[in-house]
Each structure stands twice: as C-alpha cells, then as structure tokens.
Protein: Cbb3-type cytochrome oxidase subunit 3
Amino acid sequence: MGINELRVAVTLVSLAVFIGIVVWAWRGRFDAASRLPFEGGEQ
Structure:
C-alpha cells in the first residue's frame, strides 16, 4: 500500500467518524440538556 492509498483510507475513516458523530448528536440524546438554560433558575 502506497502513501496515497493510506491517505485516502485515513480521509475516508475520518469522514465516517465525523458523520457518525453528527448522526449521534442529532438523534435527540441532548434534548434535556438543550432545555436546561430555559428551565428553572428563576428566583
């Protein structure tokens, strides 16, 4: 495997990881955390 194939492989793996993180973040796991600044805290 030459250096160019290695660069392509690293680029594709990085893209897949990035897309995975974006999908994970947009699944709604952070709904409660996103509402925290607007709930409570009023005294």
Notes: The mean pLDDT is 87. The chain is about 65% helix and 0% strand.
